[in-house]
Amino acid sequence: MITRFLLQNMDKRGGIFLAILLGSAVLVPLSNLLLPASSPFHVPTSTLSLWGKYLCYALLAVSLDLVWGYCGILSLGHGAFFALGGYAMGMYLMRQIGSRGVYGNPILPDFMVFLNWQELPWYWWGFSSFPFAMLMVLAVPGLLAFVFGWFAFRSRVTGVYLSIITQALTYALLLAFFRNDMGFGGNNGLTDFKDILGFNIQAQATRAALFSLTCIMLAAGFLIARGIVVSKLGKVVTAIRDAESRTRFLGYRVDRFKLFVFTVSACMAGVAGALYVPQVGIINPSEFAPANSIETVIWVAVGGRGTLVGAALGAVVVNWAKTLFTSGFMAPYWLFALGGLFVVVTLFLPKGILGTAEAIWARRRKPDSTPAAEPAPAE
Amino acid sequence: MSLFHRLKHALVILVALVAASVASIAQTADEAFTRLAADSYSDTSRAIEILVSSAHPNAALIVEALNDGRLLAGPGGVAVKTAAGGFVDARTGQALPAAPVDMKPVRLNNAVRRAVQAALGGLGLLNPDPAKRTAAAEAVFKSRDAGLLPIVEAAIGKETNPRALAALRQAQAAILIAKPDTQPLDRFAAIEVLRERADQDALATLRALPGDATPALKDAQAKAIATIEGRLKLWAAAQNLWYGLSLGSVLLLAAIGLAITFGVMGVINMAHGEMVMLGAYTTFVVQELIRNHAPWLFDWSLAIALPAAFVVAGAVGIAIERGVIRFLYGRPLETLLATWGISLILQQAVRTAFGPTNREVGAPSFMSGAFELGGLAITYNRLWIIVFAALVFAALLAILKLTPMGLQMRAVTQNRRMASAMGIRTGRIDALTFGLGSGVAGLAGVALSQIDNVSPNLGQSYIIDSFMVVVFGGVGNLWGTVVGAMTLGVANKLLEPYAGAVLGKIALLVCIILFIQKRPRGLFALKGRAVEA
Amino acid sequence: MNSNRREFLGTALAGAAFVGSSYLPAAAQQDTIKVGILHSLSGTMAISETTLKDVMLMLIEEQNKKGGLLGKKLEAVVVDPASNWPLFAEKARELITKDKVAATFGCWTSVSRKSVLPVFKELNNILFYPVQYEGEESERNVFYTGAAPNQQAIPAVDYLAKEEKVERWVLAGTDYVYPRTTNKILEAYLKSKGVKPEDIMINYTPFGHSDWQTIVSDIKKFGSAGKKTAVVSTINGDANVPFYKELGNQGIKATDIPVVAFSVGEEELAGIDTKPLVGHLAAWNYFQSIKTPENEAFIKQWQAFTKNPKRVTNDPMEAHVVGFAMWVKAVQKAGTVDPDKVIDALPGIEAPNLTGGISKMLPNHHITKPVFIGEIKDDGQFDVVWKTSGLVAGDAWSKELDGSKDLVGDWVEKKCGNFNVKTGKCGAA
Amino acid sequence: MNAPVPGALTSSLLYLDGVSVSFDGFKAIRGLSLTIEPGEMRAIIGPNGAGKTTMMDIITGKTKPDVGTVMFGGTVDLTKLDEAAIANLGIGRKFQKPTVFDSHTIEDNILLALKSKRSVGKTLFWKTESPQQKRIDDILGIIRLADRRDRLAGSLSHGQKQWLEIGMLLAQDPKLLLVDEPAAGMTDGETAQTAVLLKEIARDHSVIVVEHDMGFIRELGVKVTVLHEGSVLAEGPLDHVSANERVVEVYLGR
Predict the structure, then answer these.
(1) What residues of A are in contact with residue C121 (Cβ under 8 Å)?
(2) Which of B473, B467, B505, B500 lies closest to B486, judged by CA?
(3) Global ipTM
(4) How far is B112 from chain A (nearest CA, A)?
(5) Which CATH number describes the domain made up of D1-89+222-254?
(6) Is the N or C terminus of chain D more exposed, i.e. has fewer CB atoms within 10 Å?
(7) Local mean pLDDT, 10-residue blocks, chain B (533 residues)
C-alpha cells in the first residue's frame, strides 16, 4: 500500500527528478571517492559539501511548498522547524564528542563547562543515543507544529495573520535560543563536532555518505509530499487553499487537514535541518531568524509554487546564485540581487521558473488547451 | 574621598578668611602653576587644591577654564583661553597679545574632573546665584563631610531662598547622621529631615548612621527607612508605568504608518521599517547640512527634518506603490514577498550610499537631559517622543476623518468599484494612502533617530514589533493600534523587572500568539458577515 | 598527484588533509600569492567588518608596492559571508579549495570563527582573527591577534579599583559568549580581591536591545548606595548607541558612575554625540589618538586610501596590521606559503605594533599587546589615561575559571592547544 | 423519507424558534421561527438585508445565534456544532456566488463532495471504488457535464458552475439542501432547466431555496416564506403571499 501510495500517478517531471536524485546519490560519492582529482568527472569534496547543503535547503523548500503551495498556509516560521531538527542532531553530535572536548569533560559539552554548569540539563538526556536523537529530529518540530497548528487552525487564524504569528513564533525561539541560560550554547550554538555514528565527520567518506543520504532523504521527502498531494487528501487540501469555507460546508474538518499537512511538513523540515548540521558543522540561533524563513519562501516562489520539484529547484538555484554573488567583485551586491529576485519573481514570474516553463511548453504543444492548474492566491 | 576632604578643610580656612601672607600665596602659587604644566593628572588635582586653598585671586577663573578645557599649560606658563577667544595669563589675569605657542590644553580624567567639580561646588556655597548654592549644598549632602558643618550652618543662618535652604538643611542632616559625636537629639532631627527628603540618596545617607547609635535612634532610623522604601516602591511602579508608556509611544510611532498601509489598505509592507530608516537618515542629512551651513539653526534641525522625512519616505512609498504594489492588489502574500525584497534593496542601498556604520544624529538642547517630577525621573527626549506620537496620531485621525482625501481613502478601502464608479481615481488614492503611511513612518524615523542607532539595520529591529502592535490592536482601527502599542509597551516594562528583558519579550510574543487564537482579528476587530468573503 | 584507490579509501581524514595540502604548492607556483579576506560586507555585521576588508586591501596593496612576497605579487580574494554563519563556513571552504589562498584574514563574531574553524582544521589553512574575544581557545590553524580577556578586561578593572576607588560593580553585557565569559572571569577576579557578592550586579540583554530605560535606572539605583560604583560594559554592537544615549539623558556622568566598555571604539562612537559621555572609558590595545610615528603614518595612509580625511581607525584594524606583518615575516622566514611551514614559523615572530611596542606571536597563537585605558573625549576620540608598563602576553585559557586554570596552549613544545599542566597531557582531565 | 426519531422534540426536519443575532448592534435576525418538514421544498424570498443569507449561515453553523433554538431532525442542536459537523449530518449548502474548486477538475469537484468518510486518514489512503465511480458518472450526467469531466472547474461558464455546485450537493446526498439564488445570472433557458433539476432533487431531499426571481419560484410551485428585517413577514403559497399588503409594501416601498 505504501509503495502504491508513494508512486501513484508518477509523472514524467517527478520521474526525472527522482532519477537525478538517486543517480546523484550513487554516482557523485563514487566519483568523489574513487576517481583521481585529475579526472574530469571527479567531484571535489568542496563541491560535494556545498551541494549537500543546497539539497538540505531543497528539502526544506519542498516541505514549505507542501503547506504554502498546496494548502495556502504561508509559514514565515519554517526555519524554526528546520533549526529545531538541526539542534536535535547537534545535541547528538555534541554528546558524541565525549571527553574529546577542549576541557575533556566526558559528560558536559564545552560551553557548559566554560559557564560552570554542574550537570547536564534534563532535556539533554538521551541525546547520546542516535535512535533517540533521530526520533527527536522528527518529534520536536512535529510536536511544536502540532501544538501551534492545533491552536491556530482551530481558531481559524488564516492568511496574513497566520504568517505574522508564525514569524512571531520563530522570533520568540530565536530570542530564547540566544539566551545562554537555555543551555543550547547561546549565540555560538553547537559546534566542533567530531563524529557521527563513530565515523569522523570531516572524513571524505563520511561527507560522501551524508551527501548520498541527503539525496535519498530529499527523494523520500519528495515522494511523501507528492503522495500526499496526489491523494484525495491532497485534493481536499488544495480545495481548502482555493475555497476554505466551501470545503468546510462539504463536511471536511479543515483544521485537521491543515494540521496534518503542517505537522508532516514540519517533520520534513526537521529532517532537512538534521542533515544540514553535520554537513555545515554548526547550528546556531541565527537559523531561527525570520529573515531566513522568508528567504525560504522566495526559493519556493522562484522555483514554482505548488510544484514540489520547482521548490527544490528554486532552493538550489537561489543558493547557487548566492554562492556566486557573494564572491569576487559582486560581493557587496548580493542583497541587491536577492531583493531584486523577490520583486521580479512576484511581479513577472508568479508561477516560478517551473510553472512558467510548463505553461510555455503546454501552449506550444496544445495551443487550444486550458492552462495548467494555476495556484490561486491564498487568502 | 581624601582629596575632597582636604579640599573642604581648606575651604573652612578660606571662608573664615584666615589671613594669609601675600608672600606665601605667591610661593604656593608657584608650585601650583608648575604642577599644572606637568601634564600629570595627580599634579593637576593637587594644583587645583593649592590654588583654591591659597585663595588665589584667579582660582575661579582657572578652575572654570580647566572644566571647559580652556586651560593651556606648558613650559611657557599657564594661560586661559577666554570664552571670547582671547588669551589671558592665568597667573596675572592680564590679556596676552597672541596665542601662546608652546602650550597644550591641560588634560582631565575623572579624578581631576571630580576635583574641579568639588572645587566649584565648594566655591558655590558662597555663590550669589541660589541655584548654584543649591547645587553646592547637594554636593555637600553627598560627601557628608563633617568639616563643612560650620560653613553649612553659617550658610543656613544667612540663606533666604527656600530651595537652597532646604538643600542646606539636608546637607546638614547628612553630616550630622554620619558624624560620630553628634548629639542624639540632633540625630533625631536629622532623621526627620531625611525622611522628608525620601529618595534613594536619603536612604543611602540614613544607612550611614553609625552602628553604636542608641536603640531609640536605630528604631527611628528603621522606621524612616521603611517609610522611604514604601514611598520609593510606589514611585518605582509609577516610573515603570512611565517607561511602559514611553516604550509604547515608540512602538506606536513605528507601527502607526503600518496601521495605514496594512490596516486600511491591506498591504503587507515589509519595507515599512526601511521607511522609518529613511526618515532617520533624512534627519542625519538635514543635520549635516545645518552643521555645515547654518549651525545656529541646530535646535530647529528636527523641526526642519520632519517635513523632509515625510516627503522623502512618502515619495519612496509612492514610488513603491506605483512601481510594484499596485500590480499585486488582492494578493497580500505576494505583496509581502515583494516588499521584503524592496526592504533588502533599500537597506543595501543605504549601506552603499552612507556606509555601513552608524551615523550621528545629535539631540537639540531641548531634548537633552531629564527633570524630576516627584519621585519620577523624566527624560526630555522620551517626553517629547510621547508628545510627538500623540500629535502624529491626532493628525492622522483628523486626516482620515475630516478631510476629503480621508473620505476618499475610506471609500476606496470599503468598496473600490463603487468608489471608482463615483469618480474617485482609485489609483491615485492608493498611491496617496501608501505615501501617507510611508511618510508617517518617515516621521517616526526622525523621532527614533533620537533614541536608537541610525544605521541601515534600524528598520529591521522594528518591523516585527510593528506588525505585532497592528495585529494585536486589530487591523483597520487606528485606536486599536494605540491601545495595542500602549498595552505591549506597558506589559513589556512591567514584565522586565521580574523576567528580564529577554524572557519578558518572549513571554509577550507567546501571549500575542495565544491572544490571536482567541481573537483572530485583534482587539478591536470588525465583526459581521462581510468579514469573510 | 599519483594517488590510487587505496590511498583515498584509507583513513579519510588523512585523505582530506592530503587533498588540501597538495593543492597549495601548486598555488605557490602561480604568479600571485592569494590572501583571503573573509569579512561580511552586507547584513548586520557589515557595520564593523567592512572596514577590516578595506584595511586588508590597503595592507596588501602596500606590500605589493614593496615588491610583494617571495618575489610574487599578493592578490586579495574578497568574499562576502553576508553576516550569515553557515555562509562563513562555505566561503572559507571556497577560499581554500577554489581560490587556494595561502592564508585568510577574517571573522568578527565568535560564532563566525567557530563556524569556520572546522573548515580551517580540515583543509589545514591559516586564519588570522583580529577581534578581542572570550579566550578559551587555542587552535593550530588560527592566530588570534585581538585581545584575550586578560589583555583587556582585567587591567581595566584594576584601573577603576585603583584610580577611581570603585567598590561596587555593575557588569552589563549582551547575552552571548564573550560577555558571559568575561563577566565570569571578572566576577571571580573581583571576589578574589575582596569585593562582596552584593556589591556586584550582573545584567544581560539581548542583541540589538534598544530600550534601556529600566536598566539604566537600575544602575542609577545600584550606584546610589553610598559606595563608588562603576559599570563594566560588554554590551555589543548596535545596542551601545541607545545605551549611551540613555545614560546621557538620565544624567549619569562619568564622574558619578563611570562606564568602561570593551566593545566601544572609535568606529562605534562615530555614531554618537559624545559630549554627554566625556569621561566614560574604554579599554583597548590601540587608540587612534595615541601619538607615535607609526600610528600617525598609518592614520595618514588609511585616510588617503579611503579618500576620507575623517575616517577613524580602531583596535581590530591594528590587529590586522600586526597580524599581516607577522604573516609576511613568517612566510619570508619559512621561504614558502605552505601552511604547515608558516604555522611552525609564526610563533616567536615579532612585529611592531602601532603604539610603539613590538608584539610577539606566542606559542599559544595569541600575541603580546599593550593595554590602554582611554577616556571618551567630546570629539569622539579617546584620551589615554593609563597604560600598562610593558606588553601583556595573551592567555588562551583564563586563570580565573575552574575549567581552564590548568590549561595552556603550546603549539611549539607540546603541539597542542589545551595542555593540562596538572596531568601533563593534552586535553582530557 | 425521514421518520421522526423517537424521543424527538418535534417531527420536523429543521426547526428554528426565536432566533436572533446581531452584528455590532445591527440586528440581522430578530425572533425568526421556521419549520421545514421532511421532504418539503420551501422557497424563501425577501428584499435585500432581510436576513436570508444570515439565516443560512445560522443553519450551517457559520454564525452562532445570540438566542434561539435551531434543531435538526428533532434531536440535534445545530447551535452547538461547527460547519463540518453540520455538513456531515446531512445539510448541504450552495452559495449565492457559485463556489467550486477552480483548480480541480470537474470530476474531482464531485469526488470531493461525494458522500464518504471525511477523516484525514481515510482521505489520505482513498481509492475510488466502482460504485462510487458510477455515482460520480451519474451525477455528471444529471448536471450535463459528463463530457467535460477532465476540464478544470475554473474554465466553466457561470451557469455551468451553478450546475456543478448543485451536482456537488447531490453527491453529498444531504437530507436538507440550502440553495442560495440558484438562478442568479442564468439565461432564461438555463433558469428553466435549473427549476426542473431542483424539482427532481426535491423528490427525495428537503430543499430550501432562497431566490429573488418570482418567475423561478412560480415555476417551482412550492410554499413561500417572506422574510423582512430578520423575521417572517408572511408564509404560504406564492399567490397568497403576493396578495399580502405588507409584502407588497415591503417589496415596492411605500
Answers:
(1) 202
(2) B473
(3) 0.85
(4) 39
(5) 3.40.50.300
(6) C
(7) 51 45 61 83 84 76 84 84 82 80 83 78 73 81 73 82 88 85 84 85 79 82 88 88 92 91 82 95 94 88 94 96 89 86 92 85 83 83 93 92 86 80 86 93 93 86 88 83 93 86 86 84 59 35
